Amino acid sequence: MLRLPPVRNPLFRKLSSVRVGLVFLAALALVCVLGTFLPGEESMRLVFGTGWFAALLGLNAVSIACATYRHLSETIPLDDRPVFFRGPEDYGNLRVNDSIASARGEADLDAVETVLRSLGYRAVRREKGAISALAGRCQHWGSVVAHLGVILILVGAAIDLAMGVRGEVVLREGESTDRYFTEESGPDGKPLGFELRLIDFETTLHPNSSVPDKFISTVEILDGPTHLRREVEVNRAQRYGGFVLHQNSYEPAPEISRYVLDLRDARSPTPRPIYVEANVGEPIDVPGAPGYTLSLEETGQTVQCAIREPGGAVFAHDLSATPSEMSARLAADEPKGRFHVERWEKIEAYYSVLGVMRHPGIPAIYLGCLLMIAGPTISFAVRRRRFWALWSEETGRIYLGGRSRYATSHLERDVAEIVKAIRKGATENA
Prior knowledge:
This protein is α+β, with helices and mostly antiparallel strands. Helices cover 36% and strands 34% of the residues. It starts with 9 loop residues before the first helix and ends with a helix.
C-alpha cells in the first residue's frame, strides 16, 4: 500500500484545505460565467486569454494537487488503520452483530479469518484474540482519481492558452493560401504547413428572409502528393495537419463581379446545359471540355464572355444583350463555336472566413473528463465495510459485528457465512 510522508508546512496546509479550494473554484466559476457574456474575441482578449486567468487556473490546480496529496498521506492511512474491539459490550453498538458459542477458541478465529479473506476482506489483522478486517479499501481512490481528472482538465486548459491557435483564413473562390492570421501574427501571418484552396462557397437563405440558413465552403487541401477535398460548414469542422477548420462566417465582396452561366454544348446529345460560375477578369476552364477556357470582361454596362477553343479560335458572347437579341444572334448564319451561352445571371460574390484552431490540450482535457467520471464510479461501486471478531474466554463465545455506510445486506451475509463455518468446524470435531 502506498505510504506518503505527511507535510506540515503551514502554506501547504492552507492550500490543501477544503475552504481555500472552494474559494478558488468559486472564483474560477464566477470568472468563466462572466466571460461568457462577452463577445468571442473580447472574451479571449479580456478574460480567457489573459495571464491572470492562467494564474487562476494554476492556483486551482495547485490547491487540488495539495488536497490530493494530503488525502493520500493522512486521510487514507488514518481510515485504513486497524481498530480492535476487545469488549463484548462494544459489539452491541454495531449495525450488524451476532455471537456464537465456541469451544475451539483460536481455531474458530482461524476459520473466521479464512472466511473473511474469501469474502473480499484484504486488510485482515489479528491481535490477542481479536480480528479487525476491512473490505473496499480502494473506495478512497475514487476521490483521488476525480481530483486527478480536475487537475488534468486545468492543465489541458493552461496548455491550450499557452500553445493553442485561434486564427482565421479569408478566401474567395479560386484563391489559395498557406498561411493563417491571428491578432499577434502581423500582416505576414503564420504558416499552415499545407496549402488551402477555396473551390466553392455556397450560402442559402431561409425562405422569405435575408437570414442565412447555411453556408458551406468546399476547400481543397494540398500537401505534397496529398490532395483532399472537404466541405466545411457551421457545426461540421474538418481536421488536418493538427488544425481544426471551422466555418466562422462570410463577408460580401462588392469589388468582385460574379456571374453564373448555362453553357449549351453543340456536341452533346443531351439538352442539359453546363453550369459555370466565373468572375470578371479571371479565366476558368470549361468543365468537361479540356482545352476550352472561358473569360469575362466588363466595360461599363457591357459584359463580354469569350470562349477560347483548343485551336485558338475565340467566340465572344455579349451578356449585356437581351435574351431575344441573343436568340436572334444564335439563329443567324455566323460561326458560333462549340459552346454558346444560354442563360446568365449576375450574383453576389463573397469571402469565406474560415477559423483555424489548434487545441493541444484537448487530449488532457478528455482524459481528465474520463477520470472525473471514473472517480465517482469507483466511490459508489465499491462498498467499503469493516468487520470485527472477538473470542471471549470468559463467556466462551465469539462475537461478530460490522459497520458500513451503505445497506447492511453485505454484512449480514458475512456474519451468516462465518457462523456457518464455525458450526461446520464444531460438527467435524464432535
